[in-house]
Amino acid sequence: MSAASPTLGQTASATFGLKLAPSLQNPIWPGKASTVRVQVNDEVAFLNWLRSELPEARLQESASPGKIFLLTNLPTSKLRLLAQCPAVTFIDVPDRVAREEAYLQNADFTVNAVEAVHVRYPQLHGKNLVVSVKENPFDASDIDFKGRIVPTSASAGGATPHATNMATLVAGGGNSAAGGRGVAWQSQLITSDFARLLPDETSFLRAQKVSVQNHSYGVGVENYYGLESQAYDAQVLEYPELLHVFSSGNSGIQTPATGPYAGVARFANLTGQFKTSKNTLSVGAVDTSGQVSPLSSRGPTFDGRIKPEVVAFGESGSSEASAVVSGIALLLQQVYQEQHNGALPSSALVKAALINSADDKGQPGLDYAAGFGNVDALGAVQAFQERRYFSGRVGQGEKQQFSITVPPGAANLKVTLVWHDAAAQPTAVQALVSDLDLTLQEATTGREWLPWGLSSYPHKDSLALAARRKVDRLNNVEQVTLASPAAGNYQIQVAGYHVSPEGQSFSIVYEMEAPFTWTYPSAGSTLKSGQKNRLRWQTRLTSPETAHLEFRWAGQTWQTILENVPLQEGKADWLAPYSAGVAQLRWKTSAGEVMTSEEFILSPEVPLQVGYNCDDEVLLFWPKAKDITAYQVFALGEKFLEPIATVSDTLLFLDKQQQTALHYAVAPVVAGQTGLKSFTLNYVDQGVGCYVKQFLARQLVTDSVLLDVELSTLYGISSVVLEKRDNGTFQPVQAPLSLFRPVFTITDPKPTPGRNEYRLKLLTDKGAVFYSDLEAVFYTPPAFIQVFPNPVVAGNDLQLVSSEDKLVQIQLYDYAGRIVKELWQDGAIKVLKTDGLKAGVYLVKLLGDSEYKVCRVVVL
């Protein structure tokens, strides 16, 4: 045998390592039992081998697809033996404990131009589409999901705030508040359990018509193509319209411990092997400034592929970012359905639109932190609306071309190619199976441009290098961009470099980016008057570097509000005036260039309150807002808030027989349009009764009676009278009160020693009378002492009430004058034990400072 030839032991060792997931290649501890997931190529041969060679192992379950089995009670010392079974193709880790990766802190739909889609295309809301949120159950009682939840067995568990937040971002109905509206706010919701890390059954997802599934969870840093990665890729081939959206993870500062990038800090730290799948979409996080979060997990994958493909806003991490992108994907599916008689698009086409619309973030060009950039919902939707997409199919060595025309003045031309690739084997060196090549050609000159690519060499400096044009042999996503393209005709060419005999289908999306675009505000946006608003725009202008920002009310004179703002930042904060109306903004450069926004609304927010909640009627009211003459009131209907009244006053009476809803909101009407809605309130939960919110004694035992009163409103009240019970009837304590504010204190100038019972009597302008609940006060003048119960049965506690609520001495005398009990106690109510006392008459004495009080007690 030559020195270069491997020995049998070396071959077995190589096979052993090749067939094992990285975490299973650690040193083996004898005697430790393991659970593993095993993929085989011959089920019968494997079962026969298992009975013969590993009889102690237990076959717990069989899971599809791909002849996958779960083995338990397997000694770790036998992993090498299991790997040597000819029928075994790969041994992977079982289901790990998935973890929710972040909680919702703040939602800002202007970062990804979702707000612009909502105001420009109000008909796009995801209706009749179904999204699955795979993690823990979300709160099915949340009013933002009312009437749109598809019940399943997975929804039976306890709801978590994280799952509820993710579901809200994707598809919240906005019933609770403006912040409760998700991206695809009319879509239906279904939950799925992330205890199973393999994909849900395809037949189940098809039957429930799920077209997008959001995955905002992770299991720790893993970077290899395993059985879960393979299963997700295989499922998308089986169900091509289904888009899986994964959060990249919040481990961006971690260093991988295994794989080709082990030891390379802050790279290759996706939190789950399933996120390295090719036919799914991974999403990283940017903050409200559009900067990639340091905690957002980065690529590359084990074989150098680009992950995450895109980023989106997630203040607390990539969980939120994934949910936002899932919602945008639903809007794209709706646009396509409307164009194709209800048919769903391939998820490759949706993925291409999301990637192609993305705006560059992180370092210039493509990178492993932001992928292809920050998703632009408006750009993606308009690409579908304007049908700027192609689908095709090529065989080995074949080419297909598509012609496009670039208009004058375009700042950037962008073309993205995506295809669903066949599932790879976990033992493969790289995951790509079919390889297509994208190129862009100028029709008149024949000049050609290749797609962008990154260095995948496992060194931090190499991974941080700028993207360069190159032939891509790793990714099933390729993108060509061309800055300042000359106007004219171009050819998009797709070639089959390595394709299976049946050919390879693909999707293409393209766009011509403008030099400057306002993204917030856009036509119909509603900004907050009297508050700071973050303005957003996209610019590809390189000069000038700064500009002045000007503001005007519609049709009036422009006024400068910000000077020398850096245009490349793409954002600026503006404190809007506390007024309402239609307004515009514009940038003005030193060269005289002007970029004017479309008209938008400035609107105040008006907090809704409950005036009273009586048996038949509810009063809602709110403060008057400047420049507002009308208000729209909403009630929660079957699924969403619905307008019920437009009023010029700042209050509304609700007849409970006519209005059965419990939840209401109000918004000012600005220039004939609905302004910012208030938070939605349930009038039953506001602690407001029939005018009286609070009627409480300041002290239950006291030497002066003070009753604190809070009325929900003074509106409609003609008089308020304090009444006290006297011999079974209530009598006025004093004349009716003159009220100037709803919170006040009332007193009884002549209380009776002992228990006093009070109530408020309210008379309305309409002659109706309402009463508060009873409130009792135990009045104890300075020389007063009372004991109860009296008589008391020996052995029961005797309670003493007096005006002395500080520490006093208590003495109990029998009728012979002897002290039979003595103790010290504080508090308004003291307790004296009567254990061991004989029946008879006793005297109780309280000694405080220089005075004392005496009372007679009968013991039975």
Please summarize what this structure is.
The chain has 860 residues and is mainly beta. The chain has 11 helices and 55 strands.
Molecular structure report:
- The chain has 6 domains: 8-92, Peptidase S8 propeptide/proteinase inhibitor I9 (Alpha-Beta Plaits); 99-513, Rossmann fold (3-Layer(aba) Sandwich), CATH 3.40.50; 516-603, Immunoglobulin-like; 609-686, Immunoglobulins (Immunoglobulin-like, Sandwich), CATH 2.60.40; 692-779, Immunoglobulins (Immunoglobulin-like, Sandwich); 785-859, Immunoglobulin-like.
- It is 13% helix and 37% strand.
- The radius of gyration is 37 Å and the shape is globular.
- This is S8 family serine peptidase.
- It comes from Rufibacter sediminis.
- Belongs to the peptidase S8 family.
Shape: globular
Q: Indicate the percent of residues in helices.
A: 10-25%
Q: How are the strands ordered across the major sheet?
A: 7-6-8-10-11-12
Proper CATH architecture of the largest domain: 3-Layer(aba) Sandwich
- The total count of helices amounts to 11
Sheet/helix structural class? mainly beta
State the end-to-end CA separation: 110 Å
What is CATH's topology name of the largest domain? Rossmann fold
Overall strand count: 55
Strand content: 35-45%
Task: Name the CATH superfamily classification of the largest domain.
Answer: Peptidase S8/S53 domain
Q: What can be said about the biggest beta sheet?
A: 6 strands, parallel
Domain count: the total is 6
Unreliable segments of 5+ consecutive residues:
1-14
Identify the CATH class of the largest domain. Answer: Alpha Beta
